[in-house]
């Protein structure tokens, strides 16, 4: 199974989701990308710290969403409805889904406190558990 997670900058939400699912499903091909990512940027310091606290890998280099990534994925999950609409406009024949099974947006912790990142990690953990376990 090939899974692609998409957010805005590919430094917070989507890489955290990627690392979680890679740990849960090591035989799957899981990656992430951002709609406005600065290619080569590192994961945010707070995202890395939260992943370390939970014993998850932290190596990550941001990348932009490309047609190749989208087409190669069996499933594409986005963090917000805005992300879904943006991908739909670029790839009208490609179904994308909100990561939240309830249709809620995953809040962006970028620039927030450690508590914000921990909250987002908890949201992602719950959503990934409901989707994939």
UniProtKB/TrEMBL annotation:
Pfam families xref list: LMWPc
Enzyme active site: 7 (nucleophile), 13 (nucleophile), 108 (proton donor)
Family matches, as InterPro entries: LMW_PTPase, Ptyr_pPase, Ptyr_pPase_sf, Tyr_phospatase_low_mol_wt
Keyword Protein transport: no
SUPFAM superfamilies: Phosphotyrosine protein phosphatases I
Keyword annotations of the record: Hydrolase, Protein phosphatase
Domain annotation Phosphotyrosine protein phosphatase I: ranges: 1-130
Entry's Gene Ontology molecular function annotations: protein tyrosine phosphatase activity
Domain of life assignment: Bacteria
Keyword Secreted in annotation: no
Family: Belongs to the low molecular weight phosphotyrosine protein phosphatase family.
PANTHER family: LOW MOLECULAR WEIGHT PROTEIN TYROSINE PHOSPHATASE, LOW MOLECULAR WEIGHT PROTEIN-TYROSINE-PHOSPHATASE ETP-RELATED
The protein's name: Low molecular weight protein arginine phosphatase
Protein source organism: Listeria booriae
């Amino acid at each position: 199974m090939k899974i692609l997670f998409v957010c805005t900058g590919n430094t917070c939400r989507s890489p955290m989701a990627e690392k979680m699912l890679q740990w849960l499903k090591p035989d799957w091909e899981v990656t992430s990308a951002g709609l406005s990512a600065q290619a080569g940027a590192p994961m945010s310091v707070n995202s890395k710290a939260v992943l370390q606290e939970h014993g998850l890998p932290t190596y990550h280099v941001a990348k932009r969403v490309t047609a190749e990534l989208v087409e190669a994925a069996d499933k594409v999950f986005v963090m917000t409805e805005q992300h879904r609409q943006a991908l739909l406009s670029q790839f009208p024949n490609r179904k994308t889904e909100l990561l939240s099974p309830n249709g809620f947006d995953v809040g962006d912790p970028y620039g927030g406190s450690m508590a914000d990142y921990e909250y987002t990690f908890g949201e992602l953990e719950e959503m990934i558990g409901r989707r994939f376990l």
